[in-house]
């Protein structure tokens, strides 16, 4: 006979599994948030990414341009934050992106076994989760760091290409930060000009915002929930990538990205919804990517596709994660193709990797679900 303690410990997991098949879960996957969407910020992200690809193409440094574009994705983070708060957080994100490229590049240049690559990038994902959690950074999340590291591991072959990739990513982060802060920087210039002209200047609400420094936030011991989330991400990334390798998939770290993206949800029910939405989005996006990769777009055609998909993804981020994933998938594959080269057949690999990663991510979330996470309970699902 099972003890009451044993029954109590397994109850959250049983409820979590029940949540997988609940109507509210799948309704949430396809539900659209009809609130007004912002356009200016997504356009700034797209322009920052496009500018890096443009410069890379004109300078005949296309591989470096793709890493600069990855760095420019810094502009996709911290969009809800007041500008004075955003500065430090964007700086931390930029450093994390450059470090991710460096870690992936070292793995690629050293030509290490795939097992070492999996361990290195999985640990990187966990470290990124600690930083993002400690700073309460909003945006695409840790999956961008994994993507950057994976791209570098696939295309960097020696010390020279490593240095070029890291330098390009650093330049891209600066451009991305500038793009994110553009309205505030423009306003600051205007206010400065008014002061020099002796004209009255209204007080700025941004200057009055109270905020904690990045160093203070990072120096504090991570909250238990953040540490547990980071540990889950490390385990999920490692298991999913290892499983993908075992079954013969060519891009095992894509499975890790699927698991990491699913586990970025704050609670179990968000993990399930994000996982399902990412899977549906990747399926649709992979079909689009396969068609695009089969068309001889050339470099400049690919740049246009990447920028358009990036703007769509950023615009839809608050509307539907499934639609966002649909746009992100061809964008990511086209961006990877610029530096590593891909064929249309890679779309199938992308779907299989994502499916495997989502399954692992949701399974680990269910196995480690907290008893206090009541969002997955049947009675809660009935009310949602």
TrEMBL record:
Q: InterPro entries given for it? A: Memb_transporter_dom
Q: Please indicate which superkingdom the organism of origin belongs to.
A: Bacteria
| Main localization, broad class | membrane
Residue ranges crossing the lipid bilayer per the database entry: 37-55, 90-110, 116-135, 142-159, 165-185, 230-247, 253-271, 283-313, 319-339, 351-370
Q: Which UniProt keywords apply?
A: Membrane, Transmembrane, Transmembrane helix
Q: Would I find 4Fe-4S among this entry's keywords?
A: no
One CC-aspect GO term? membrane
Q: This protein is called what?
A: Integral membrane bound transporter domain-containing protein
């Amino acid at each position: 006979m099972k003890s009451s303690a044993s029954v109590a410990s397994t109850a959250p997991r049983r409820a979590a599994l029940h949540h997988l098949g609940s109507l509210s879960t799948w309704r949430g996957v396809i539900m659209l948030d009809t609130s007004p969407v912002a356009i200016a910020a997504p356009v700034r992200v797209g322009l920052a990414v496009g500018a890096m690809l443009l410069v890379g193409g004109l300078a005949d440094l296309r591989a470096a341009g793709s890493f600069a574009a990855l760095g420019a994705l810094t502009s996709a983070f911290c969009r809800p934050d007041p500008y004075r708060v955003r500065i430090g957080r964007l700086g931390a994100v930029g450093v994390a992106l450059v470090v991710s490229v460096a870690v992936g590049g070292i793995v690629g240049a050293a030509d290490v076994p795939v097992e070492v690559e999996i361990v290195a990038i999985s640990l990187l994902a966990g470290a990124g989760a600690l930083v993002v959690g400690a700073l309460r950074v909003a945006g695409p999340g840790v999956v961008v760091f994994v993507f950057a590291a994976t791209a570098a591991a696939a295309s960097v072959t020696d010390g020279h290409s490593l240095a070029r990739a890291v330098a390009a990513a650093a330049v891209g982060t600066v451009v991305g930060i500038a793009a994110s802060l553009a309205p505030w920087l423009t306003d600051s210039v205007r206010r400065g000009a008014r002061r020099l002209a002796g004209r009255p200047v209204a007080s700025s609400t941004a200057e009055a915002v109270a905020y904690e420094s990045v160093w203070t936030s990072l120096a504090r011991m991570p909250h238990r929930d953040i540490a547990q989330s980071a540990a889950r991400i490390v385990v999920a990334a490692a298991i999913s990538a290892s499983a993908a390798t075992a079954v013969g998939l060519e891009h095992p770290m894509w499975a890790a990205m699927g698991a990491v993206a699913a586990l970025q949800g704050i609670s179990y029910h968000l993990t399930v919804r994000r996982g399902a939405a990412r899977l549906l989005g990747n399926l649709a996006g992979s079909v689009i990517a396969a068609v695009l990769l089969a068309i001889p777009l050339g470099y400049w055609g690919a740049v246009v596709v990447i920028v358009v998909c990036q703007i769509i993804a950023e615009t839809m981020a608050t509307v539907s994660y499934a639609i966002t994933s649909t746009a992100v998938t061809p964008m990511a594959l086209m961006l990877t193709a610029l530096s590593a080269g891909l064929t249309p057949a890679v779309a199938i690999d992308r779907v299989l990797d994502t499916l495997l990663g989502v399954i692992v991510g949701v399974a680990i979330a269910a196995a480690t679900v907290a008893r206090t996470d009541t969002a997955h309970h049947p009675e809660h699902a009935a009310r949602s």
